[in-house]
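Researcher: I'm preparing a figure for a lab meeting and need a structural model of a single chain. I don't have an experimental structure, so a prediction will have to do for now. The sequence is pasted below. Please return the structure as tokens so I can convert it later.
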Amino acid sequence: MSTKNHAVGVVVCASAGILLASSATPANAAEIVGLTWFSGVGSVAGETIVPPVDPNNDDVVGLSPNQIFILQKNYQAIGPVDLVFHLIDSGGTTEYAFIEGVSNGTGIDWNGYRLELGFGVGDDFVKSTSGDGLSFDAPDYNSPFTFPAFSTVSVTEHDVTASGGIIPAFAYASGIVFHIDVPDGISSFTLRQSPLPVPAPGTGLVGALALLVATPRRRR
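Model: Understood. Here is the structure written out token by token.
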């Protein structure tokens, strides 16, 4: 399956001199300044990235004022979309609120949606490690995680799983909100997003029959 990549133009309120200086200096990271997406199953649009209004605001309670908008991820097949965020140094850890929407163009209902934090894309994606500072608002989890289509949202340091609902085939789901703590010491990170499809009818029965056939019979 082919993988597409797309670099998003960055909206940065800074002088040209500052931009040139930051591009010539190794990024050390806690301010998001750009986005590149990679996927063989979907596309991304409606991105808005602006400088944080409250940098180094780790552990803010409630909705962070530093907000990233990605209003359209259009899936044409089941699989991950990898969003690579590019960073520059801010001298601390900045907490961002991500406000998103997603379109299910797969023709299959989804009964869940998963987010993962890590590095790299495609087969080279590696999950973030415990205690590295990059997290879904760990350890206090005192900012909102909202997936309106689902009744249950499970949040750990590097994983979010929404379940208990349905995003129907060819439907659009908006109002998705989650938070990420972005630390110093990294030049980029990957936010992997994957739909969880409803199992096809009879999948469980087929699996049970296959297991039954594969199980040796005892002779009397």
